[in-house]
Amino acid sequence: MLKLEPIKIGKIELLPLFEGGKGIAVSNGVTAGAWSACGGVGTFSGASADYYDEDGNLVRYHYSGKTRRERHAQLIEQSIKGALAQARIAKSIAKNVWVNMNVLWEMGGCQIILEKTLERAKGMINGVTCGAGMPYNLASICAKFDVFYFPIVSSMRAFNVLWQRAYKNYSQWLGAVVYEDPWIAGGHNGLSSEEDPKIRQDPYHRLVKLRKCMNSLGLSSVPIVIAGGVWCLNEWKNYLDNPEIGPVAFQFGTRPLLTKESPISDEWKKRLVELKEGDVLLNQFSPTGFYSSGVYNNFLRKLDNRSKRQIAYKDVSESGFESIIHFGPRNRELFVSKEDELKAQAWIADGYDQIIKTPDGTIVFETKDEAAIIHQDQVNCMGCLSSCRFSNWSQEAESNGSIPDPRSFCIQKTLQDIAHAGSIDDNLMFAGANVFRFGQDPFYANGFIPTVQELVDRIKQGD
Predict the structure, then answer these.
(1) What pLDDT shows up at residue 407?
(2) Is 153 helix (H, G, I), strand (E, B) or coil?
(3) pLDDT (tens digit, 9 = 90+) per residue, 221-250?
(4) How far apart are the C-alpha atoms of 276 and 301, rounded to whole Å?
(5) Exposed, middle or buried, 463 (CB in 10 Å: 0-12/13-18/19+)?
(6) Residues 299-305: contacts with CB within 8 Å, 24+ apart?
(7) Could you say which of 24, 100, 210, 227 would form a disulfide bridge with 43 (CB–CB 3.0 to 4.6 Å)?
């Protein structure tokens, strides 16, 4: 068994093992409570969390509002109910040990949901893990309720900006800094425009830079939580008791998916052990605009193929754009290159005869049925993101000023569906790049699915 030094957050010593917070009902109160009961930091997701009626029956999110703004308000109300429900469940299992809530800063109504939840969940939530954006107000909100904050960053530079602009005023409530590898972590990733998505940088050197920065700011005792690509701790021995890294913990996002407590469907659990190396795609289809990693199933394949049926166009004829295709019910003329006209004719002949404009001066070709689904999903938008490129929603002004992007998708719809026993082939299945290791790890041989306690015990052994 590895010698794991406990980490200290405030006055509390904890096992340096964190459960990664996977959104929309995948990391819930049951998984978080079970993980925390093992002595680590369990994390339930506050992103559109499940809630229940008076009889304990699951209530699926529903919307009666006629406008996006009305539906957005209903989303916020239901999200607060869900976060409170999962906090109660987690604490009922974990008792008096540590529980974190995870939120995405770019989720719709994040700050309202976070404040209202912390206000009503006093004593049930010890910390807030937050990524997907630059959460400048995270520290002030958490400090207001005497709760620790755990920002997720993918570089030293990102943390330093957060610190200088906001966090330095709330240093006593900084629980830990979560460093998430932007190349191989599951879900949304923090790759910058300066980083090549195809060339992974050595996490060790990035972590050393982060620690040097933290030390210079007087944060030498604040732990770094390593996230993204962590499977077994034997592979991270040189990060333990390492003065260049300092106090360290590890976050597991993928492995807790395959536990008895995990709420995902049996079909989803079965698929996890069947995946092969290379089955996960790092892509930019997300309506957030961030990179994200997911299993390359029918859902992502459809988006990938749609983007490949894409050509540039002009509204008026100019050099290189002299061929005409007709667009929309009024047969407006669009001008494309001769080469692209031949592509368009072939796609139309194959049934992709619906032409949809993108915000980038291109058009994509889809079938009538798929085009109708895209349109209806955009109409049904409930503002689950602060800004959505798929529907053009913005919670500040209702529109982000761009036309909707058909190359993306409604993330709320698909994640709600897969989390509640919907198709695992036709929905977004977030996963880290190491998910294929379920099928190679002897721990899971013969269909074995551990409890959270058994998984944590296995991790503590280094395997």
Answers:
(1) 96
(2) strand
(3) 999 999 999 999 999 999 998 999 999 999
(4) 16
(5) middle
(6) 299/409, 299/414, 299/425, 299/426, 299/427, 299/428, 299/429, 300/428, 302/370, 303/407, 303/408, 303/409
(7) 100
Per-residue pLDDT at 383: 94
Nearest to 450 by CA among 34, 100, 96: 34
For the chain, the structural domain boundaries read 7-273+436-460, 298-419
Q: What is the pLDDT of residues 8-25, one digit of tens each?
A: 998 899 999 999 988 888
Contact 394, 412 (CB under 8 A): no
Two tokens at 294? 């997911």
Amino acid letter at 437? R
- Indicate the residue type of 202: D
Amino acid at 325: I
Distances (CA, A) of 364 to 361, 384, 414: 10, 25, 21
Instruction: State the fold for domain 7-273+436-460.
Output: TIM Barrel (3.20.20)
Show the beta-strand stretches assigned E in 72-122. Answer: 99-104
Q: What is the distance between the alpha carbons of residues 37 and 93, in angstroms, rounded to a whole number?
A: 7
Compute the CA torsion angle 81, 82, 86, 92 (nearest 10 deg): 30
Output the six-digit token pair for 115.
């404040």
Here the contacts of 212-216 (C-beta below 8 Å, separation 24 or greater) are 212/156, 213/156, 213/159, 213/160, 214/159, 214/177, 214/246, 215/246
Contact 131, 158 (CB under 8 A): no
In a 10 Å sphere around its CB, with 0-12 CB exposed, 13-18 middle and 19+ buried, how is residue 361 labelled?
Answer: exposed
Q: Residues 273-324: pLDDT tens digits?
A: 999 999 999 999 999 988 899 999 999 999 999 999 999 999 999 999 999 9
Strands 248-252 and 280-283: unpaired
The residues near 450 (Cβ < 8 Å, ≥ 6 apart) are: 258, 259, 260, 443, 458
What average pLDDT does range 203-209 have in this prediction? 94
Residue showing tokens 């906001």: 166
For 455, the token pair is 């998984």
Q: Distance between CA 186 and CA 102 in Å, rounded?
A: 15
